[in-house]
Specification:
8-stranded mixed beta sheet, 29% helix, alpha+beta, globular, 20 strands, FAD/NAD(P)-binding domain, 497 residues, D-Amino Acid Oxidase, Chain A, domain 2
Length: 497
Amino acid sequence: MESRHYDVLVIGGGINGAGIAADAAGRGLSVALLEAEDLASGTSAWSSKLIHGGLRYLEHYEFRLVREALAEREVLLRIAPHLVTPLRFRLPHHQGLRPAWMIRAGLFLYDHLSRRVSLPASHAITFDADSALKPEFHQGFEYSDCRVDDSRLVVANAQLAAEQRASILTRHKMLRAERQPGGWQVEALSPSGKTLTLLTKTLVNAAGPWIRQVLDQIQGSQSNQDVRLVKGSHLIVPRLDASDAAYILQHQDGRIVFVIPYGEAYSLIGTTDVDYQGDPRAVQIDAQEMDYLLTLVNQYFTTQLKPEAILWSFSGVRPLMQGEQAGQAAAKVTRDYHLELEQPAGQAPLLSIFGGKLTTYRKLAEAALAKLQPFLPQMGPAWTEQARLPGAESISSLSQAQAELQQAYPFLPPATVKRLIQAYGLRAHHWLNGAQCLADLGPSFGPLFAREVDYLIRHEWAQTSEDILWRRSKAGLGLKEQDRLALEAYLTQKPPA
């Protein structure tokens, strides 16, 4: 830490917090980010892994949100091409549910609400005899959206912030905050158990599902906004379709469920919308959600899934605005964001972030900085729309980046080259750095290498095997127990980063 007195202090290391920290630091402000656990250890790591406009939001007339999300889809394809990649979605037409004319009208709006540069338009399709779907589903539609490595998107934004001189303080739990003349005094518990005191002109609460708990620790906060916690659960099963297309399935209750390619051998099925009470870190899928997802997939696909086909499941808690929507079903509560500014009579400002989604994090950050601008008149202009995220600096195409990495390190298997580019972009060169053979990369832990693990510790704030296996990578899925134990033994021998 270069200083303990900041212009902006952000609480929460999810996508919103990391995005705000990066934007603020790049405008010449001094910034600190406090995260009680690891980066992306909450909602941001347990999403459906999509950057999308939100086709179903059109049914709720959320045209502003969809338009903004569609525009951001293009921005993210440009600034993070290694993390955000195009994906075609197939929507089987289900007789008795949404009529075909309604779907065509929705897809027309989806294609034209915002300028589309990189992705092909939607069109009707016919499923042939080789389709993974049951024979009764022979007509449908196809449209474009994108997939994303959600937790790596968070880390990339934290890296961007750090490279603009922000202090990224993971595993620092905020204890209390109170207004002082000219700003805030914030106390945080460091990993060593010591109390750290930080002074800041402005305070941003981007704690996601913990936003109310943080507000309760801020002396003088008068916020009466309520948050509705909604659980979304996903299943990972063996790949249901050999193609690289995703599916969007309609349910009788009006909801939709995605089936998305995940890695090379799996399909991700999700999500549910279930109101949740309790600790967001203790959230788990329940039997009713499993049955809901499996039953729907089995209605559409020829491969019939039983519970034993589930290889892994994960759940996250989405913090949605309650507002006047208390009586609505969870699936109908808006995914839009709301920024609440508390600034009583000339005192230091507190900005709380309610809601939001991965796709619009950058616009949310710009909106947050606009709210803070009157208190920080020295801040520079918005800049992140053209700022490539770390690893994407000079990528013209993924295929070219993979070819160049393969040429530089011919001993790497092609599947490894693809994984490295999709995770690190061109920053894979930073830790490969002159290696002549696999042995130069040190011991391996499943698909990961010791030199790679060292890089994650030094440059990406990773500390534990969970950080590495489930957030910095997805290597935990299918990893042998002996490899996990070997990684944990290796980490115990490493000095703190």
